[in-house]
Amino acid sequence: MKLIACTDRNGGIGKNNLPLFSISGDLRFFKEKTMGHTIIMGRKTLDSLPCGKPLPDRTNIVLSRDPGFARDGVRVCNNSGELALLLRDISGDVYVIGGGEVYRELLPFCDTAYITVVDADADADTFLPKLDPSDGWQLTDQSPDHEENGLIYRFLTFERHI
C-alpha cells in the first residue's frame, strides 16, 4: 500500500474536515499517481471531495464504522479486517488518501509515502502521522521547490521495507 498526502510544514492535513490547500500542481501529481488505481479514504474525506462523489477512473473504497453507510460508486468496509479481505481481490497499486484516522490505521501497512509539503503553517486540526525513521521510513526522493499563488511546495517520497 502507498500513502499520498499534502501537508503544511507541521504535518497538518486538514482543518474543519477540509483540506488545507488546493494547489493545481499538487492536484495534478495526485491524479497522476492515483488514476487507474484503488484509493482508500474515510467518510469525511469522501465528503470533502467535489459534491461528495467518488473520484473518477479509480476504485474508491471508504472505511466507515457506520454499518449503514452507503454511497453510489464506492465500496464500503467497516473495519481493517473487511478491507484486508477486499484488497486480496484487487490488483494494482492501492493508495491511502486520508483522513487522519485512516492514515493512522493504515500507515503500518504502507511501504511508500508521497507527501507534498507546503512551506506554510495552516493552523491545522488534523495531522499526518510522523514517518519515523525508527519505523524504517527513509526519504528517497525530493523535488525542487515549486511555487504557485505565493505558496512554495515540494514533493517528497519516503520508502520503507515492511
Unreliable stretches (pLDDT < 50, length at least 5) are none
State the major sheet: 9 strands, mixed
Could you say which overall geometry the principal axes of the C-alpha atoms support? Answer: globular
Number of domains: 1
Through-space gap between termini: 11 Å
Show the helix and strand layout.
Blueprint: E1 2-8, E2 12-15, E3 18-19, H1 24-34, E4 38-42, H2 43-48, E5 59-63, E6 74-77, H3 80-87, E7 94-98, H4 100-106, E8 112-118, E9 126-127, E10 138-142, E11 146-148, E12 151-159
Parallel strand pairs: 1-7, 1-8, 4-5, 4-7, 5-6
Antiparallel strand pairs: 2-3, 2-9, 8-12, 10-12, 11-12
Can you offer a commentary on this structure?
This protein is of the alpha/beta class and 162 residues long. It has helices spanning 24-34, 43-48, 80-87, 100-106; strands at 2-8, 12-15, 18-19, 38-42, 59-63, 74-77, 94-98, 112-118, 126-127, 138-142, 146-148, 151-159. Strands 1, 4, 5, 6, 7, 8, 10, 11 and 12 form a 9-stranded mixed sheet that branches. Strand 4 (38-42), helix 2 (43-48) and strand 5 (59-63) form a beta-alpha-beta unit. The radius of gyration is 15 Å and the shape is globular. The model has no long low-confidence stretch (mean pLDDT 96).
Key words describing this protein structure:
162 residues, alpha/beta, Dihydrofolate Reductase, subunit A, nine-stranded mixed sheet, three-stranded antiparallel sheet, globular
